Amino acid sequence: MKTKSLIYAAACSLILAGACKSKSTNKTVDSAGIDTTKKDTEATGKIKPTGPAPEWATGIKPEMQAVIEKLGSYGDKPIETLTAVEARKNHTPTDAVMDLMKENNIPKPALNIDTMGKDIPVDGGKIHIRVYTPKTGKSSYPAIVYYHGGGFVIANIDVYDASASSLADQVGAVVISVAYRLAPEHKFPVAHNDAYSAYEWVVKNAASIKADPKKIAVAGESAGGNLALNTAIKARDKGIQQPIHVLAVYPVAGSNMATPSYVKNANAKPLNKAMMIWFVKNYLNSMAEGKDPRINLIAANLTGLPATTIITDQFDPLQSEGMTLADKLKAAGVSVDSKNYDGVTHEFFGMGNVVPEAKDAETYSVDQLKKSFGM
Question: In this structure, what CATH number is given to the domain that contains residue 162?
Answer without folding.
Answer: 3.40.50.1820
